Amino acid sequence: AEQLRVFLDHDADDVIECAVLLEAQSVNIAHFLGTPHDLDDLSLSVGNIAANAGQHGLIATVEFIPGTGIASLNDVVQVVAMISQPNLRLLIDAWHVSKSGLSPNDLERVPPGLIHAVQLCDTSGSPSNNTSVFSHRQLPGQGSLPLQDIVGVALRNNPMVDLQVEVFNDDLPRMLAPDAIATAARASLDELV
Q1: How many domains are contained in the chain?
Q2: With CB atoms counted within 10 Å of each terminal CB, which end of the chain scores lower, N or C?
Q3: What are phi and psi of 27, to 5 degrees?
Q4: Domain containing residue 49
């Protein structure tokens, strides 16, 4: 975890500056490696980041990650509702949906239009609490996650949802060249929509 803290040791201003330089459309807020916090306190911090992002024309998304400061779908929906910032939305990660024991039907309770992006990967079986978030993920369509259903719910929530491939897999770069990984990722997205 300490090695990751050094890698992730950037503040929101750094991230927003990079997003502007890269002409990105959004920045993501995740309480990665954090511990549970009072949602009122979190909403103040998230609100400040979202306001700053909004001043630069960026959408700010918030992602729940089991075992962190924003640990559940309920938490992330509550935080976003408390802030009611016009550029603030949710990012849903298929891995975290599965790891938290949610089904695609659970995503139906997200208020309409609130899902901005979905990060897609796959896995054989349900990720356990001991499964590293930086390994064992597969390209979408190569495992057993209900990705079609997750994408379907997200598209009903927001027809313009941003579908993203996020595959942490230490073995993948040893098995395929970067262009082959990109081609496979694109093909997997095409099959889902």
Answers
A1: 1
A2: N
A3: -125, 150
A4: 2-192
Query: Contact 63/32 with Cβ under 8 angstroms?
Result: no
**Whether 87 contacts 100, CB under 8 Å:** no
| Residue 126 banded pLDDT, cuts 50, 70, 90 | low
- Domain CATH number, residue 148: 3.20.20.150
Rounded distance between C-alpha atoms, residue 175 and residue 170, angstroms: 10
With pLDDT > 90 as the criterion, what percentage of the chain qualifies?
69
Question: What's the order of all strands across the beta sheet hosting 115-120?
Answer: 26-30, 59-63, 88-93, 115-120, 162-165
Classified as helix, coil or strand, 52 is helix
* CB proximity list for 36: less than 8 A, separation 6 or greater: 68, 69, 71
Per residue in 66-99, pLDDT tens?
988 899 999 999 999 999 899 999 999 999 999 9
Q: Is the pLDDT of residue 105 over 90?
A: yes
Residue 185 gets which letter from DSSP?
Answer: H
Residue 105 CB: number of other CB atoms within 10 A? 10
For residue 184, what are its two tokens? 């496979």
